[in-house]
Write a structure and sequence with these properties.
This protein is an all-alpha fold. It folds into two domains: 2-69 and 78-104, no CATH class; 177-365, Serine Threonine Protein Phosphatase 5, Tetratricopeptide repeat (Alpha Horseshoe). It contains 19 helices and no strands. The longest helix has 31 residues, at 74-104. The protein is elongated and about 130 Å long.
């Protein structure tokens, strides 16, 4: 292809332009025509013989001067030089590119067309290839509701929230509504909106609760919607019921507990002990700030040693937000998702908790 493109440019440059009659040849032709015209005029009696002789002599002198003048070749030489430079430049492109590719490339590796990659064993495929395979299947079979249902949470984990919402919506249309599909649709819409729970997301969560009143995801986000609307007492009551209803270790219970902490309704087990509280009472504002910063730093160090502590990550994110350092909170959230696994319930609960405290998904990605 490189050679073909180069030839397409070279051919017009290499083609020798049509030879133009030189100025000398053109002038000689004009003078010959003048002599012929002079003879015709003399034969018809239009001019006198003496006048014809003078004119013929003048034309002859002009022809002699023209023949004696040196031939100009600089224009031709210049034209050749101008054509030679782009020819060399065009030839250099494929030569240099082939040389670099031969040294740095991998010409011996066989090509891997997308069709062949999608046809390989799923166990040997990457996540992107598996998603591409699913998308190819759904493009050919858009009525496969089960396929849309499987793909929707994968889109969510890849943070392709608009695609996730579309997949959930297709699954609901084709398979019918249930609690998981509706709550998944609502969560995708929340993330598309950057953490804001709009009316369409609320409708999805409410539909999920009609199917299953105990659906934790829908309960959490509807409580968060109440908080966003300024109905904090209602939100606290909903989160309190979640904390009491859900079993120990449930990620959504942890999210509810941290939401209550943020709302000022609970203390946290990781907070300062009694001795620290008494010591803080006698400190200056600057000393208290240093003490709090030290506690947050120690918590950060513990999480580096034990990164699977979901509650610890929640507390660290909350602490940074309380201190007004959104960048550190965002960094802690990123590290937590990497440690817990982007597809884990703990990570999803952390994302929901961050969104409930104003750390939107848009900010998290940046």
């Amino acid at each position: 292809m490189t050679l073909g493109a180069s030839l397409a440019v070279l051919l017009p440059l290499a083609t020798r332009p049509k030879s133009e009659n030189s100025d000398t040849a053109h002038d000689l032709e004009v003078y010959r025509d003048q002599l012929s015209e002079l003879d015709r005029d003399l034969a018809r009696g239009l001019i006198q013989p003496s006048e014809a002789e003078q004119a013929r002599a003048e034309i002859g002198r002009r022809i002699l001067r023209l023949s004696a003048a040196p031939q100009e070749k600089t224009g031709v030489e210049k034209s050749f030089s101008l054509r030679l430079i782009p020819v060399i430049a065009v030839l250099a492109v494929p030569l240099i590119s082939w040389g670099v590719y031969a040294r740095l490339g991998s010409p011996d590796i066989p090509s891997q067309p997308l069709g062949e990659r999608l046809a390989r064993n799923p166990a040997d495929s990457t996540v992107d290839e598996l998603v591409a395979r699913a998308e190819s299947h759904l493009a050919a079979n858009p009525s496969d509701g089960r396929g849309w249902e499987v793909l929707a949470p994968i889109y969510m984990r890849m943070q392709r929230f608009s695609d996730s919402a579309r997949a959930y919506d297709n699954a609901i249309t084709l398979l019918g509504s249930n609690a998981d599909r509706q709550s998944g649709l609502g969560e995708a819409m929340v993330n598309v909106a950057g953490g804001r729970i709009a009316e369409d997301a609320r409708a999805a969560f409410q539909a999920a609760l009609r199917h299953d009143p105990s659906n934790a995801r829908a309960r959490f986000f509807l409580a968060m919607a109440s908080a966003q609307d300024g109905r904090m007492e209602e939100a606290v009551a909903d989160w309190t019921r979640m904390r009491d209803d859900l079993p120990e270790g449930s990620p959504w219970r942890g999210a509810a507990e941290q939401a209550l902490v943020q709302a000022g309704q609970e203390t946290t087990e990781r907070g300062p002990g009694q001795e620290e509280v008494e010591a803080a009472a006698s400190m200056s504002a600057e000393e208290r700030a240093d003490m709090i910063a030290g506690m947050v730093e120690r918590l950060d160090e513990r999480l580096r040693e034990n990164p699977k502590d979901a509650e610890g990550w929640t507390q660290l994110i909350r602490s940074h937000l309380v201190l007004g350092d959104a960048d550190k909170a965002r960094d802690a959230l990123t590290r937590a998702i990497e440690a817990l696994g982007a597809d884990s319930e703990q990570a999803r609960a952390l994302i929901a908790f961050a969104a409930s405290n104003g750390l939107t998904m848009t900010e998290q990605v940046q």
